[in-house]
Amino acid sequence: MSSIGTGYDLSVTTFSPDGRVFQIEYANKAIDNSGTVVGIKCKDGVVLGVEKLIPSKMLLEGSNRRIHAVHKHAGMAVAGLAADGRQIVGRARSEASQYLSFYGEDIPIKELCDRVAHYVHLCTLYWWLRPFGSAAILGGYDRDGPQLYMIEPSGVAYRYFGAAVGKGRQAAKTAIEKLKLLEMTCREGIIAVAKIIYEVHDEAKDKAFELELSWVCDESNKQHQRVPADLLEEAKVAAKAAKDALDEDEGMDAD
Amino acid sequence: MRWEEEGMKQNAFIMGNKLMGSNPHAFSLIMPSIPITHTQTPYVTGTSVLGIKYKDGVLIAADTAGSYGSTTRYKSVERLRPIGQNTLVGATGEMSDFQTILQILDRLIITNAMFDDDNTLGPPDIHSYLNRVMYNQRNKLDPFWNTLMLGGVKNGVKYLGNVTMLGLHYVDDHVATGFGIHLAQPIFRNEWNEDMTLEQGTKLLEKCMLVLFYRDRSAINKMQIANITEDGVKISEPYALQTKWDYEAFSNPTVGNEGSW
C-alpha cells in the first residue's frame, strides 16, 4: 500500500507519525523496478540468477555484469540501481580481503553478510547520505556449508533458502516455494532458476533480456563462478522450452 | 651485538615519538641524525633453488631446509609453491619474507579472479609483478631478503626466471639461486639441452642437488621437485637422494699428512 508521506519523506533521518522511514521505502521502489534477481540454496550449493534487462541493442553481450564475485567462495547478485550495487559489492570485496589479511582465513558468509548489512544500514542514519537503491543477494560456501542471504536497502539481512527481488519477485517467490530445494542438486537448480526467470519475464513490457547465472557448489570446487557455458546453454534451452509450452497452454485457454 | 642494536632502535623510536609524534617520516625530515633502520639481516633462511626448462615444461627443485644461521632448525619447509594454475614460485633467503610475498601473491590472484573475465595471470605476469614488489621494497631500503625463482607454462610458452632482492629480474633456460649459481649452473651449462625429457631433466636436477648437499652446509638431503606443464603444477613429496660416503680418502683422511684434521 503506497501512501504519500508528505513532509515526512524528505530526509532519511525523519520518522513519520506511524513509525515509517519513507526514504527507505522509496529506495525499495527502485529495486522493484529492476530486473528479477533470484537465488536458491540447493543441497550442495547456491545458484544465483539475474534477468538482465537490455535497454539497447548496442550493448555488448556479456557486459554490464550483475553478478559479481566477492571472494573465492562467495558471489553477489545485485538488483536496483547498478551504480549503488557496485558500491555494495566493492565494500563486500574489501571486507572479505581485509578479513583474510587479518585472520588468515576466508571470511565466513554470515560475517560477510553482517558487515555488508552494517554498511548499508549506515547509509540510512545520516541526512547527508542516501540509502542504497539496491538489494544484494549473497551466495557463498564456507565451513558451515552453502548459504544464501539477502541484504535490503534498510540494512536488514536475512538468511534464505530461496529469495527473489525485482519486477517479477511475487511470481518468482511462488515458483521457488514449489521447488524441492532440500533434494535438488545445483545442476538441477540451474535449470530451475533459468525456468523461473524466463517464466517471470514480461514479454510485453520488456523486450530483450540476458540470463546471467552463477553458482557456488561442490561441483565448482566450492568456488564462485559463472555457470559453465555448456550448462548455461542447456538451462536456457530448457527454460525456453518450458516458457513456450506455458505460452501454448495460455494460448489454448484464451480460445 | 644484536641486542644492543635493538636497544638503540628502541631509544631512537621513543625519542622520535616524543619529539614528533608517531609519524616516523616527519621525524626523519627534521632530524636525519637518527635514521630509521629496518631489519637488514635474515634469520630463518632457505638455500638454493634450481630450475630448468625441458621438452614439455619446467622443472624446479629445492630442498626443504630452513636454517637458523648455522643450525638446520626446520627440516620440512616448503620452499616451492604454486601460484594460480600455471606458475610455481620458489624462494631462497628469509622465509618469513617469502610467506609475506605468498600472501601478496594470493591477494593478487584473488583480485584478478574476481574480474571473472576468463583471463588468468601467467608466469610472465607474476614475474613482472614480483619484480615491482621487490624493487619497490628495495627502494624503501627495506628489502624482502629473498631471491625468487619463477617458472611455468601457459599457452604452450615455457617461462623460467629469477627476481633478486634488489629487484633485478631475468629469464633463461636454466637458472639457480644461492649456492646453486656457483655449483649447479656450471653443470647446467655443460649438460643442459633443449629437448630433455622428464627423466633426463630430473636426473640433471638430482645430480646438482646432490652436489649441493655435499658442498652447501645449509642444504639437507630432503628435496622436492616440481614439474610444471601445460596441465598444471605438480610438486612431489619430499624425498632423499642416494649419497656415497665410503670413499677411501674418507676412511683414512690424514694419510700422507699426519697431524692434520
TrEMBL record, chain A:
PROSITE patterns to which the protein is assigned, alphabetical: PROTEASOME_ALPHA_1, PROTEASOME_ALPHA_2
Keyword Nucleus: yes
Pfam families referenced in this protein's UniProt entry, alphabetically: Proteasome (PF00227), Proteasome_A_N (PF10584)
UniProt xrefs under InterPro entries: Ntn_hydrolases_N (IPR029055), Proteasome_alpha (IPR050115), Proteasome_alpha-type (IPR023332), Proteasome_asu_N (IPR000426), Proteasome_sua/b (IPR001353)
Residue stretches making up the Proteasome alpha-type subunits domain: 8-30
Record carries keyword Cytoplasm: yes
Keywords for the protein's UniProt record, in alphabetical order: Cytoplasm, Nucleus, Proteasome
PANTHER family: PROTEASOME SUBUNIT ALPHA/BETA (PTHR11599)
Reported function: The proteasome is a multicatalytic proteinase complex which is characterized by its ability to cleave peptides with Arg, Phe, Tyr, Leu, and Glu adjacent to the leaving group at neutral or slightly basic pH.
Family: Belongs to the peptidase T1A family.
UniProt-recorded name of the protein: Proteasome subunit alpha type
Organism field: Sphagnum jensenii
UniProtKB/TrEMBL annotation, chain B:
PROSITE patterns: PROTEASOME_BETA_1 (PS00854), PROTEASOME_BETA_2 (PS51476)
Pfam families: Proteasome
Coarse class of the protein's main subcellular location: cytoplasm
InterPro entries associated with the record: Ntn_hydrolases_N (IPR029055), Proteasome_beta4 (IPR016295), Proteasome_bsu_CS (IPR016050), Proteasome_sua/b (IPR001353), Proteasome_suB-type (IPR023333)
Family matches, as Gene3D superfamilies: Glutamine Phosphoribosylpyrophosphate, subunit 1, domain 1 (3.60.20.10)
Keyword entries, A-Z: Cytoplasm, Nucleus, Proteasome
Family recorded in the similarity comment: Belongs to the peptidase T1B family.
PANTHER family: METALLOPROTEASE TLDD (PTHR32194), PROTEASOME SUBUNIT BETA (PTHR32194:SF6)
Function: Non-catalytic component of the proteasome.
Name of the protein in question: Proteasome subunit beta
Source organism of this protein record: Sphagnum jensenii
